[in-house]
Automatic annotation (TrEMBL):
It comes from the Bacteria. It comes from Bilophila wadsworthia (strain 3_1_6). SUPFAM superfamilies: MoaD/ThiS (SSF54285). Signal peptide: none annotated. This is Thiamine biosynthesis protein ThiS. Transmembrane segments: none annotated. InterPro entries: Beta-grasp_dom_sf (IPR012675), Mopterin_synth/thiamin_S_b (IPR016155), Thi_S (IPR010035), ThiS/MoaD-like (IPR003749).
């Protein structure tokens, strides 16, 4: 299935969850904010949020510094 992640088409397996995608991208779920189809996804639900063909995701990662 095809989803859009930060403006780029990405292919995911059927049944993949948001957590699967985050880990596949090498990101830390504790440092990510996700918007799915214009709605914020609570971090505690990443593992149970099944991705659907055509989803549009924006992933924002917290970065420390000063």
């Amino acid at each position: 299935m095809n989803i859009t992640v930060n403006g780029e088409i990405t292919v995911c397996n059927e049944g993949a969850t948001l957590l699967d995608l985050i880990l596949r991208l090498g990101l830390s779920p504790e440092k990510i904010v996700v918007e799915r189809n214009r709605d914020i996804v609570p971090a505690g639900t990443f593992a149970e949020t099944a991705l659907q063909d055509g989803d549009t995701l924006e992933l924002l990662q917290f970065v420390g510094g000063g």
